[in-house]
Amino acid sequence: MELRRTRAIKRSYRESDDDDDDRGDKKKETERDVSLLSYAERLQPIADKGLCGDAELEEEVAAVDEKARQVARLIAGSKYCVVLTGAGISTAEPASISDFRGPNGVWTCEKEGRTVPPSPRSMDDAKPTRTHEAIARLVTRGLVAHVVTQNIDALHLRAKMDVTAVPRARLSEVHGTAYALFCVACAVETRLAHMVDSIGLRPVAAVCRTCRAPLCDRLCDWDSPLPDGEINRAISELKKADLLLVVGSSMRIRPVGLWPRYTLKAGGKLVVINLQNTHLDKKSHVRIFAKSDQVFDGIMDELDFEEPTALNPPELNTRATNQIPEPVKNI
Ligand SMILES: [Zn+2]
Prior knowledge:
Elements: H1 39-42, H2 61-77, E1 81-85, H3 106-111, H4 130-140, E2 146-149, E3 171-173, E4 176-183, E5 189-191, E6 203-207, E7 214-219, H5 228-240, E8 243-247, H6 260-265, E9 269-273, E10 286-288, H7 292-303
Bound molecules: zinc ion.
């Protein structure tokens, strides 16, 4: 069962497998009302957050356009393309969710004693960016087989008026999500319309409508085991990929930052689209230093996408009810 792993895989910013000594003093959840806090504020403090505020580089427009055309050709010619996304795809409008280690990222500002620039909206009101839209269209068109995301904002699953969302079955949320609850007994997932008021895979005041067992949040904290089903599927998909696009991630977070090696080891090609350096830049077939929206605009132009005319069928997002489970006391 997902929450009963004996060797839980957890996140770390370090190469070492020993993640027990890189945390600072923990605050007890009982001391804080987490419902009032952002995701970053909810996370337990850790002493070492790794490199923050690394320089962001942007290539000339013409170079980005040429590389975007090259990536489009790679996508069109691939047999099994997988996309791995990070916080960098959610920083642009109309999402405007802070990343962690960019120049104004949460960890960078914390390290420099600055206040994080305020977002114009809450995470609940964030909308998918052009990158989210493009990825969803590529999945719908059958050009991308699977999406692995480190993001907990569920923006891959949120459709806009004229754009399909990524079907849940084609998405692995490897750090969990702020927009679902999970039944520890029957493994049914209930999607939420609003950010969950909890973190750390803890029971919430609700029970499963299928089996009446307690529901837990799916929002991983530093010491939470990563969700088995999600990470096993993600690794399986990355091994199958003959083309992997890493988008908006500096790949500094472990273990997910190491997973592109599964694709490389299996002979697949790697494309990295990110403003900051990554440890796999030299292994990449195409490396683009640019904002992801700019690159995906170019990719979609090259692939000559027509505008979709219909919303995605609701059944594609299996188990995505967007309904808050009925509350129950004494859990
Ligand atoms: Zn259940």
